[in-house]
Amino acid sequence: MPGIDECLLEVMAVPGARGAALVDWSSGLALGTIGDSPVGDHETTAAETAELARAAAEYESFSAIGVPPPGLSGRHSARPAPPELPPGPPDGEPPVEDVIVTTRTGYHVLRFVETSFDSSVFIHLWLDRTAGNLALARIRLRDLAGRLVLG
User: Fold this and answer.
1) Which helix (H) or strand (E) holds 108?
2) 78: which residues sit within 8 A by CB, 6+ positions away?
3) pTM
4) Do 28 and 46 touch, CB atoms closer than 8 A?
5) Nearest of 112, 115, 114, 116 to residue 125 by alpha carbon
6) Conformational region of residue 85, where left means phi above 0, alpha means psi within -120 to 50, and beta covers everything else
7) Count of CB atoms within 10 A of residue 86's CB?
8) Nearest of 8, 10, 2, 14 to residue 131 by alpha carbon
9) What is residue 120's DSSP assignment?
């Protein structure tokens, strides 16, 4: 099971990887960084991506488990009762799997890390758009996030 440094080295093995970081989204601090930063400073990038991660994790629109159907339309005037929503994620499980931002030159993939304690950690991968494969990056980040050992 990889620690932070080993995890980041494995992230950089993803084809097209330009830079990566392990970030605490509650504080905006980088716990580890490797490679390049889109703005030339890993701490600035960590703080900015933490804002995005925090919004995705905390806003109900993104973390809702289920959404009631919009109702019947057209000839039906009665709206069906909303279904029972399943319970939220178990303790330690992030409310969001990942967040992807595309730019003209690259992808930013934020993969939330599940831990045995109440954490707010994600892996940020900056991926070159022409050399990278977004699907492969997501698969590799999911695997790494599942094996990462913190603490």
Assistant:
1) strand 106-112
2) 72
3) 0.80
4) yes
5) 112
6) beta
7) 8
8) 14
9) -
**Distance of alpha carbon 13 from alpha carbon 1, whole angstroms:** 16
Amino acid letter for position 76 = H
Tokens at 128, concatenated = 């070159």
Distance CA 109, CA 101 (A): 7
Q: List, run by run, the mean pLDDT of 10-residue segments along the chain (151 residues).
A: 88 97 94 96 97 89 55 44 50 76 97 80 96 96 89 60
Residue 83 CB partners (closer than 8 Å, separation 6+):
66, 68, 69
Write the DSSP assignment of 23-76 as a string of letters. Answer: EETTTTEEEEEEE--TTS-HHHHHHHHHHHHHHHHHSHHHH-S--------TT-
